[in-house]
Amino acid sequence: MGLSRRSFLTAGGLLVVGAGATAAGVETGVLPGRSWAYSHLGIDGEDGTIPDVAPGRMVSGAFMSEARLGERCGWSIAYPPGERGNLPVVVVLHGRGNDHTSAFADLGLDRFLADAVRRGAEPFAIASVDGGETYWHARDNGEDAGSMVVDEFIPLLGGRGLETRRVGVLGWSMGGYGALLLASRLGPDRVFAVVAESPALWPRYEDTAPGAYDDEADFADAVVWGEQDRLSGIPVRIDCGESDPFYGYTRTYVDGFADDPAGGFQLGDHDVGYWRRMAPDQLRFLADSLASR
């Protein structure tokens, strides 16, 4: 016998949660009953499709990071077709379990960039770097992926001829949180726009995923809750799927802005299909922020 929508949902979530949903709950620290139900009901929205266009040039390399305690950090830079010198750059922060290749191999941001510029968007480069799984902030063992970005990766990009006095920042999941944290620390003199999609946000340390923070003091030091005013002067876009396990927390965080950020809440889950679907609007937002600065 088939199950109705009411059979799936209760006021607090699911009557039954499958193994896949439980695994996702372990990763995010939020039991994704809503996410599992929306997916099985087919109301997550369509998956985004990577444009069938030729990307511009991509260069890759690696460096040993002092800030990450000697870790080898791979990186890639995607240029738009017909690249110009001294391009602005958007730094991409990946999610947990990903690396610098995920922005291009999984999300297809190099192809989305090529398509955006072909349609008239202000050109810029996209640069991604390995940040490990420490949620882009300083940890008790001395590793600091955020400092790696600011003190090592951005200077590397400048050394390759990119304009780094002010950068854009984009991230998803763990990287979405990292993008908000990094932009709030750098401020409008260093960041021309920030995009956070499906940000891994928790209001309390007790709610966080294992390994996201060392302890309550670490959580307090790297908090973005109640710090929205530190993004004042920076164009902000935040997107989150309505069946994403972080949906409720993200909506509460967005409500804490004096002026509503761009973006919003759409049909979608915490997955690549949603992130691909949002990529064209997010890259256009970054390009428009560049054009108006």
Automatic annotation (TrEMBL):
Belongs to the mycobacterial A85 antigen family. Pfam families: Esterase. This is Acyl-CoA:diacylglycerol acyltransferase. Residues 1-23 form the signal peptide. It catalyses: 2 alpha,alpha'-trehalose 6-mycolate = alpha,alpha'-trehalose 6,6'-bismycolate + alpha,alpha-trehalose; an acyl-CoA + a 1,2-diacyl-sn-glycerol = a triacyl-sn-glycerol + CoA. Keywords: Acyltransferase, Hydrolase, Signal, Transferase. It comes from the Bacteria. Its EC number is 2.3.1.122, 2.3.1.20. Gene3D superfamilies: alpha/beta hydrolase. GO terms for molecular function: diacylglycerol O-acyltransferase activity; hydrolase activity; trehalose O-mycolyltransferase activity.
